[in-house]
């Protein structure tokens, strides 16, 4: 029974850790499918995390924090769009600029507003997204296997986890079954085809990066007001890049990307449980090396040991009408 | 300048009228006061050299660019076309030279794009399928609606483009160089479709530089030169020579003087060379031929039938999987590490098909582009440093000899015109006096004056006893330059002809993969 | 990442001087707005920053000391940039390079510094090169995105170094994770000591012999990139990989070599920090200077002649920012990171925004009157 509890709690952590990663990866999905490089996920998430925590700390409302996070991250998206869509700048450089600005600005503002050396105050329970117990969780618990699975792993998360869960099939539906999805996929493959069909390429791409900002805002708010209880300097710690790696791994499709996020989250959840534990045959692995596990995993996966992924053809190239 | 009104159409309103269209791009005056009248229900040809302004004019009509001055009238009404959506709404459709298709989409998805008819695709998809199938029947445009575009042959992709325009309600269809990517029988099939469009009352504007096509299919023809309409004819009242003269603005020389070849020993022997791509498809299959010193061997074929792969293999840019290359009696197998540097060491020079992409670095000054491929030549770096002074001096000499203008080695490569870039590349490669010169599309995007110059230099190199392998999509160029002609189709060499026995008809049939000279028709559905 | 084609005919000095000055002015303006939003006095703050950076001998010494490290990391980013690679892993490469420098310094206690220096150059360069060559290899041969892998390698470097510091290199009996001090003999002489020896009195600052080393690196990079056939090949790969293939260059190998060179330059930064100033190996010594190299390289247009002034400017911002944080408790030194980001944005991603405007200004003023 101990083993089962251990596994259930591992899966429970996996779900918690996967949610922000998947929200960010989905943000990357909309951006890159439209042909705009999403290396800016890290900065947008960080901006969202800070905006959410700062607003929640002041107002005491997690929802207002979420709203602020979405606005902050969408503003970052607009900046990325301005540089890479309107001015056809180098999208990689633009994204790195956004990540750098977010890193500096969140630290400066946090310090100036709260005087806590770059963090926000700890949030009270009301200013955070609390856990929700799904209907019948306790009633079903006695059922063998499925009962505890439902009660421990599926139930008992905050609302943002369920939003992320709903967004997965919804995004797949949008991408493949809606007009917007058709145009989104087209503009990332061949913007000239979209343009000659009488559809504005910049408008479509701006819509995509704004959706990307919206989702990054939720992901950021998740980090600081659902998973954590406040903002800490550079609290994303590379999660934006991990999300992008998950998107690549998922071959730019929503559901496989979800699977990749779950894999990363599983490694992360396992990682915290391995600390201080003697692994048979190896002994106790140093904590620093265990912490590097998700990053090493990312490098290995990106190196194509799971098959080469083909990105949207127009990603990273500004659209210039050219004859 | 007033164009001669086409004789056949006098009373009925024009489908499209262009009145005094003027367009500049910086210093380039692309269209000057263009007047053009297109009769409804006709096929109107628009001919002119590269850079004469044909494509710009049609892009203005399709709303891609806005004219600086002038008026467009559609069915007699003055209109403003601010973008492709306006053009589509006015019933104007365009089939671009480079297809505007999303390759990862199915045909149906491509047709739907921009004309979805609702936020949700499901019901629209079913509706579109019915409408499209009707169009297919009406115009004889068979296209598999659920196939992914990337998997279709170019001829079929082009039909998708036509179908797309018709599905969007095009009454006037613009086709920009539609036969450039087609084999002659495919082109014949296209013309049958255009004929059918005309008989159903649609108007077709055909942009081409192939005068035979103009004579074969159009009702009227307008000639553009240096951005202006310089002549207009009813097709029945003119001929190829008259059109060619109007295009060039003087008596056009359509032939090239050259003495018969005096071939020597074999420089290159290709024996069973095969290139298999990552998908396991043979892009080049069992190629066998020789090129001897002092002869020009031309490779004819529709683009994408293995010629590019053949050139790249010989240039050391593409590894081959089977067979042997023998260069100057030295055999080279697939595992021998033959690469572009090795090719140059063995006296092979290469003027690639895609000059802008491969042969010059646009961001570099001309003198730096002028050593591309020969950067390791110790003559340029006697010590450990590159001697740029020496490179600049040599580039200046090259520019003098090959008449590259402007004669400024320090100018950025991208600031030279296409023809002058090509002359610089030719100069760089020919100056090496290579034993074997590989040339792809030597005159693509090059103006008439430079074409004659380049052709003369190639013949002169041959007469100095060098071997030349020429790949060109222009059958006329192949016929004018080659001493022997190989024809490629589907990655294989399907025929060989001596220059004397070659005609466009015979080569054309071979290009289409029809064996034997007797067959006159394409096998039904050969490309479906 | 290819060098953009320019046909606007701007004179070189407009590109080299006016645009960067404009960019930095705009970046300072935006930071002034940030300071204003915080509720402080931007003029006072920026004055305090300027005074801290350039107003005293000590301040200037610190500025140049930071600039020394930034020249190395700026060159690192620039070399990769010319090969069409955006290396944002200079931070981790410098960190790992520091391991090489530190190990040599620890091992060779008692040796004179001038004998140790060539070896620390080799070791720091080699360790940094190795750390950068792996992402380079993965980009060239496996198609992994260099930006993601170099970032991941920064995290991995941090973890690896933390492990080594805590478990292997920590001096016995020491609480904080740092190595024992280097022997005095191996540490580089300070500039103020050297100048003092010939009778010139200067303020006490951590500026050391690494500065001339950095300037020498600038000269070598300039010669290599623009005046050798290897540099020509590297630039060709960066400007047009297809043309490089056509020209018989091994683009993959050049990618790996360019990353190795880039990493080696980043690794040399550790000589300034460790052998020059800290005199021991300690946790997280690059302290963001690797990242700042990105802004330095972009602002300096990836050319040594631009990187030197850009490095001094950012060195000044770092030194001034530290002073600023001291004077104004509510302004944290991360303000410099914001300025970095804004410079990357304007000098890198938005370079197309101001150029046409500037070009119009020039063509207008260059037009003959009455034409």
Summarize this entry quickly:
By secondary structure, chain A is an all-alpha fold.
Please give a structural write-up.
- The complex is a heterotrimer of chains A (323), B (528) and C (371).
- Chain A is mainly α and 323 residues long.
- Chain A contains 14 helices and four strands.
- In chain A, strands 1-2 form a two-stranded antiparallel ribbon. Chain A has a two-stranded antiparallel sheet with strand order 3-4.
- In chain A, α2 (41-59) packs parallel to α4.
- The longest helix of chain A is centred in the N-terminal third of the chain and has 32 residues, at 2-33.
- The mean pLDDT of chain A is 91.
- Chain B is an alpha/beta fold and 528 residues long.
- In chain B, 31% of the residues lie in helices and 25% in strands.
- Chain B has helices at residues 54-61, 84-89, 107-112, 121-139, 154-167, 184-199, 211-217, 240-248, 307-314, 340-345, 355-358, 366-369, 388-401, 418-430, 448-463, 475-481, 504-511, and strands spanning 14-25, 28-39, 43-48, 69-74, 77-79, 92-95, 172-176, 203-208, 220-225, 228-234, 266-276, 282-292, 296-300, 322-327, 330-332, 348-351, 436-440, 467-471, 484-489, 492-498.
- Chain B has a six-stranded mixed β-sheet with strand order 6-7-8-3-9-10, with helices on both faces.
- In chain B, α6 (184-199) links the parallel β7 and β8 (203-208).
- The radius of gyration of chain B is 25 Å and the shape is globular.
- With 371 residues, chain C is mainly alpha-helical.
- Chain C has helices at residues 12-38, 42-54, 57-82, 90-107, 113-142, 146-169, 191-197, 210-227, 229-239, 241-246, 251-278, 289-299, 304-327, 335-349, 351-366.
- Chain C is globular and about 65 Å long.
- In chain C, 58% of the residues are buried.
- Chains in contact: A-B, A-C, B-C.
- At the B-C interface, α10 of B face α9 and α10 of C.
């Amino acid at each position: 029974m101990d083993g089962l509890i251990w596994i259930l709690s591992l899966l429970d952590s996996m779900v918690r850790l996967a949610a922000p990663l998947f929200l960010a990866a989905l943000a990357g999905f909309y951006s890159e499918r439209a042909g705009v490089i999403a290396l800016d996920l890290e900065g947008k998430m960080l901006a969202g995390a800070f905006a959410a925590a700062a607003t929640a700390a002041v107002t005491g409302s997690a929802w207002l924090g979420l709203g602020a996070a979405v606005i902050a991250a969408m503003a970052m998206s607009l900046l990325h769009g301005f540089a890479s869509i309107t001015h056809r700048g180098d999208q990689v450089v633009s994204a790195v600029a956004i990540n750098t600005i977010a890193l500096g600005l969140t630290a400066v503002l946090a310090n100036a507003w709260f005087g806590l050396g770059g963090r926000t105050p700890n949030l009270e329970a009301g200013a955070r997204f609390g856990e929700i117990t799904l209907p019948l969780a306790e009633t079903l618990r006695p059922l063998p296997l499925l009962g505890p699975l439902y009660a421990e792993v599926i139930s008992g998360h905050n609302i943002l986890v369920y939003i992320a869960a709903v967004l997965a099939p919804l995004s797949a539906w949008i991408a493949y079954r809606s007009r917007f999805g058709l145009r989104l996929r087209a503009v990332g493959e061949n913007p000239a085809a979209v343009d000659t069909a009488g559809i504005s390429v910049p408008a479509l791409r701006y819509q995509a990066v704004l959706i990307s900002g919206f989702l990054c805002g939720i992901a950021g708010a998740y980090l600081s007001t659902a998973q954590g209880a406040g903002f800490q300097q550079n609290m994303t710690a590379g999660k934006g890049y991990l999300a992008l790696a998950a998107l690549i791994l998922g071959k730019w499709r929503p559901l496989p990307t979800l699977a990749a996020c779950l894999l990363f989250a599983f490694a992360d959840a396992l990682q915290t449980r391995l600390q201080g534990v003697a692994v048979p045959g190896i002994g106790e692995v140093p904590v620093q090396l265990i912490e590097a596990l998700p990053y090493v995993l990312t490098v290995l996966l990106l190196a194509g040991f799971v098959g080469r992924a083909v990105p949207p053809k127009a990603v990273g190239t500004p659209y210039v009408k050219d004859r | 300048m007033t164009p001669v009104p086409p004789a056949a159409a006098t009373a009925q309103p024009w489908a499209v009228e262009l009145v005094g269209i003027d367009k500049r791009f910086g210093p380039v005056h692309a269209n000057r006061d263009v007047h053009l009248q297109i009769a409804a229900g006709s096929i109107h040809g628009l001919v002119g050299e590269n850079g004469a302004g044909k494509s710009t004019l049609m892009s203005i009509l399709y709303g891609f660019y806005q004219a600086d001055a002038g008026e467009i009238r559609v069915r007699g009404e003055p209109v403003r076309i601010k973008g492709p959506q306006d053009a589509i709404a006015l019933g104007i459709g365009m089939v671009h030279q480079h297809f505007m298709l999303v390759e990862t989409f199915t045909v149906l998805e491509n047709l739907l794009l921009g004309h979805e008819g609702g936020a949700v695709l499901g019901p629209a998809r079913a509706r579109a399928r019915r409408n499209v199938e009707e169009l297919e029947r009406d115009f004889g445009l068979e296209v598999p609606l659920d196939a992914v575009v990337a998997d279709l042959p170019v001829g079929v992709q082009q039909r998708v483009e036509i179908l797309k325009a018709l599905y969007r309600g095009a009454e006037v269809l613009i086709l920009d160089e539609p036969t450039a990517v087609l084999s002659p029988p495919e082109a014949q099939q296209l013309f049958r479709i255009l004929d059918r469009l005309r008989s159903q009352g649609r108007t077709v504007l055909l942009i081409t530089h192939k005068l035979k096509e103009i004579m074969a299919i159009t009702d009227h023809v307008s000639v553009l030169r240096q951005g202006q309409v310089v002549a207009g004819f009813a097709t029945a009242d003119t001929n190829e020579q008259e059109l060619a003269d109007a295009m060039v603005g003087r008596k056009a020389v359509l032939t090239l003087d050259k003495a018969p070849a005096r071939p020597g020993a074999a420089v290159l022997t290709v024996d069973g060379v095969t290139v298999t791509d990552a998908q396991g498809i043979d892009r080049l299959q069992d190629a066998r031929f020789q090129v001897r010193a002092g002869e020009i061997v031309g490779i004819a074929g529709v683009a994408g039938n293995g010629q590019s792969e053949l050139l790249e293999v010989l240039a050391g840019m593409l590894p081959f999987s089977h067979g042997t290359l023998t260069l100057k009696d030295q055999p080279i197998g697939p595992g021998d590490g033959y690469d572009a540097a090795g090719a140059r060491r063995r006296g092979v020079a290469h003027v690639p098909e895609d000059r802008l992409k491969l042969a010059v670095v646009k961001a570099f000054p001309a003198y730096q582009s002028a050593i591309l491929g020969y950067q390791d030549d110790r003559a340029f770096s006697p010590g450990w440093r590159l001697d740029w002074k020496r490179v600049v001096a040599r580039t200046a000499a090259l520019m003098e000899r090959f008449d590259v203008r402007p004669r400024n080695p320090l100018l950025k490569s991208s600031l030279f015109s296409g023809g002058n870039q090509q002359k610089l590349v030719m100069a760089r490669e020919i100056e090496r006096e290579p034993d074997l010169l590989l040339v792809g599309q030597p005159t693509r995007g090059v103006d008439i004056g430079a074409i004659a110059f380049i052709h003369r230099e190639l013949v002169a190199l041959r007469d100095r006893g060098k071997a030349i392998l020429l790949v060109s999509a222009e059958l006329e160029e192949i016929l004018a330059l080659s001493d022997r002609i190989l024809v490629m189709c589907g990655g294989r060499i399907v025929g060989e002809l001596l220059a004397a026995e070659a005609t466009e008809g015979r080569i054309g049939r071979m290009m289409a993969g029809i064996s034997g000279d007797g067959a006159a028709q394409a096998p039904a559905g050969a490309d479906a | 990442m290819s060098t953009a084609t320019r046909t606007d005919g701007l004179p070189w000095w407009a590109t080299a001087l006016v645009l960067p000055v404009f960019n930095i002015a705009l970046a300072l303006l935006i930071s002034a707005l940030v300071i204003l939003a915080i509720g402080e006095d931007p003029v006072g703050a920026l004055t305090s920053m300027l005074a801290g950076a350039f107003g005293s001998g000590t301040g200037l010494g610190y500025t140049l000391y930071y600039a020394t490290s930034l020249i190395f990391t700026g060159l690192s980013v620039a070399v990769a940039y010319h090969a069409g690679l955006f290396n944002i892993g200079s931070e981790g490469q410098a960190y790992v390079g520091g391991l090489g420098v530190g190990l040599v310094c620890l091992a060779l206690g008692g040796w004179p510094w001038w004998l140790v220096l060539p070896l620390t150059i080799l070791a720091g360069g080699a360790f940094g090169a190795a750390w950068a060559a792996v992402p380079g290899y993965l980009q060239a041969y496996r198609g992994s995105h260099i930006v993601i892998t170099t970032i991941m390698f920064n995290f991995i470097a941090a973890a690896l170094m933390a492990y080594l510091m805590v478990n292997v290199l920590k001096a016995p009996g020491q609480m904080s994770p740092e190595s024992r001090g280097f022997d005095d003999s191996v540490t580089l002489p300070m500039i103020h000591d050297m100048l003092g020896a010939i009778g010139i009195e200067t303020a006490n600052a951590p500026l050391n012999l690494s500065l001339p080393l950095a300037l020498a690196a600038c000269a070598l990079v300039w010669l290599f990139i623009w005046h050798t056939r290897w540099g020509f090949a590297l630039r060709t790969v960066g400007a047009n990989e297809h043309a490089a293939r056509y020209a018989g260059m091994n683009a993959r190998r050049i990618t790996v070599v360019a990353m190795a060179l880039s990493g080696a330059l980043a690794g040399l930064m550790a000589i300034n920090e460790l052998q020059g100033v800290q005199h021991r190996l300690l946790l997280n010594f690059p302290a963001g200077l690797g990242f700042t190299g990105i802004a330095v390289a972009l602002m300096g247009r990836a050319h040594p002649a631009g990187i030197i002034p850009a490095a001094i400017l950012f060195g000044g911002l770092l030194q001034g920012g530290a002073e600023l944080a001291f004077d104004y408790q509510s302004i944290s030194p991360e303000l410099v990171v914001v300025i970095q980001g804004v410079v990357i944005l304007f000098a890198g991603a938005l370079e197309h925004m101001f150029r046409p405007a500037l070009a119009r200004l020039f063509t207008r003023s260059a037009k003959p009157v009455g034409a």
